[in-house]
């Protein structure tokens, strides 16, 4: 709904005065001129001035079946009217939580048949690590508490999840858990820009992991936390065979493998879960969130293999048998009902099949943008992609490269496309219902934005 100019100004002023946004740029705090998104439909959003944009980022990697889907809205309303909330603690359940857990175990890889619900991705990652610690502690291996993580990965914003996240820039000025979290080298492999083969890169990464395990001592390591593809780190794709080889190492040393599928599950890579179907592994614990409800409701989940769940029960300490982990809103009934409706829509509308059809087209069209000299790389997998910008000759997120990417983002927004500006990257993760004509529109807008930014660069703007 278009808002009157006075109302918009008042909203923006209240925002500037009172909101400290997530990931806020503090240099503009109090002066931020926030975009007010007031409507959303399909793959488009509309701002308070009536301007409509293609949503190139799917909300935040999470909108999958599109905005304003009737079935999801009906499910939310029906559940809110029937039973909006009751505690999930102990032996109390709700119909949606119980139904959803059973559905997830059918859809998920291998024997991941037990679900511990949480509220979002960060709380799911935290819970998975706590479960890994609890598991080893119950088995009398309390010293097995160290965690292996990946440089450049992102696992969330709560303290432990942020400690696991591997971007130095996000860690400055905080106090991180340094003693027992270890970051392995980023597993990125870009065949277009690599001087070594995929096999050499894989050997190098696995040798590095082996060395880290030997250095820390396998008897001290509880788990390895990995994103199948490092999403927020810049859509970084490991060489083929990486996850399988890492899992083999974990199995060899009794280290639990936690796959963070917060972004990659629920169709973004063309399957409900990417681990098994896309990467050939069944992890011990799998974490998901975002697309589980298509972003309509906050929800996270940790899926546990029967092996781990049974071992937890077997090893439970009779004196202290309670797994003290969970949140007031773990598996909120309205969120679980939404997730059930979302899965039904995905199956009925054959969303995964659709992604497998349009995904390669999306990447092929984006790769055409590499002709611009300011494009350093185009990376992606199905509907998860990024365009990396650079001033030719300059690599990484330097201030100039970031300014250039911001210019590309601004030109895109002006032409009606929202991409996610992140350092020197334009990240793209549209809703999964996107069709080829809309992909063409996105690429045409990006192409024009890159042309303009390149012209600005040569004119000395950066
Ligand atoms: N894991 C991954 C891979 C993510 O991308 C994110 C969020 N972008 C999270 C965890 C944290 O999820 P949330 O923001 O829902 O806490």
TrEMBL record:
Keywords: Aminotransferase, Pyridoxal phosphate, Transferase
Cofactor(s) required, per the database record: pyridoxal 5'-phosphate
Entry GO MF terms: pyridoxal phosphate binding; transaminase activity
InterPro entries the UniProt entry points to: Aminotrans_3, Aminotrans_3_PPA_site, PyrdxlP-dep_Trfase, PyrdxlP-dep_Trfase_major, PyrdxlP-dep_Trfase_small
Family assignment from sequence similarity: Belongs to the class-III pyridoxal-phosphate-dependent aminotransferase family.
Protein name: Adenosylmethionine-8-amino-7-oxononanoate aminotransferase
The organism of origin for this protein: Nitrospirillum iridis
């Amino acid at each position: 709904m278009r808002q009157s100019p006075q109302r918009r100004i008042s909203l923006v002023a209240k925002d500037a005065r009172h909101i400290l946004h997530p990931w806020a740029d503090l240099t503009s705090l109090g002066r931020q001129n926030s975009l007010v998104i007031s409507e959303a439909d399909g793959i488009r959003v509309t701002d308070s001035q009536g301007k409509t944009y293609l949503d190139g980022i799917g909300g935040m990697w999470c909108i999958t079946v599109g905005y304003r889907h009737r079935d999801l809205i009906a499910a939310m309303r029906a559940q809110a009217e029937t039973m909006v909330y009751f505690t999930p603690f102990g032996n109390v359940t709700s119909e949606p939580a119980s139904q959803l857990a059973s559905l997830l175990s059918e859809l998920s890889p291998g024997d991941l048949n037990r679900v511990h619900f949480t509220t979002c991705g960060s709380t799911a990652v935290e819970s998975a690590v706590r479960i890994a610690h609890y598991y080893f502690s119950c088995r009398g291996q309390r010293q097995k508490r160290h965690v292996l993580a990946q440089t450049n990965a992102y696992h969330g914003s709560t303290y432990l999840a942020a400690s696991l996240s591997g971007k130095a820039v996000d860690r400055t000025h905080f106090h991180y858990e340094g003693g027992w979290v270890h970051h392995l080298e980023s597993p990125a492999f870009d065949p277009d820009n690599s001087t070594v083969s995929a096999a050499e890169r894989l050997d190098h990464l696995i040798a590095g992991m082996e060395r880290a395990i030997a250095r820390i001592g396998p008897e001290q390591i509880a788990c390895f936390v990995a994103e199948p593809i490092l999403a927020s780190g810049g859509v970084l794709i490991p060489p083929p065979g990486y996850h399988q080889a890492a899992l083999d190492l974990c199995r060899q040393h009794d280290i639990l493998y936690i796959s963070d599928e917060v972004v990659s599950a629920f169709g973004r890579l063309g399957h409900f879960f990417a681990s098994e179907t896309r990467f050939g592994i069944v992890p011990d614990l799998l974490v998901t969130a975002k697309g589980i409800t298509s972003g309509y409701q906050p929800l996270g989940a940790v899926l546990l293999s029967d092996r781990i769940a049974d071992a937890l029960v077997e090893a439970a300490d009779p004196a202290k048998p309670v797994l003290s982990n969970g949140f007031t809103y773990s598996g909120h009934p309205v969120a679980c009902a939404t997730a059930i409706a979302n899965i039904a829509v995905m199956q009925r509308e054959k969303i995964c099949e659709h992604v497998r059809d349009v995904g390669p087209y999306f990447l092929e069209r984006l790769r055409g943008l590499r002709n611009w000299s300011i494009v350093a790389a185009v990376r992606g997998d199905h509907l998860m992609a990024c365009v990396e910008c650079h001033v030719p000759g300059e690599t990484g997120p330097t201030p100039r490269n970031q300014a250039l990417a911001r210019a590309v983002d601004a030109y895109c927004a002006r032409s009606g496309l929202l991409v996610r500006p992140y350092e020197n990257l334009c990240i793209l993760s549209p809703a999964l219902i996107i069709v080829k004509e809309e992909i063409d529109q996105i690429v045409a807008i990006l192409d024009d934005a890159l042309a303009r930014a390149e012209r600005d660069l040569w004119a000395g703007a950066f």
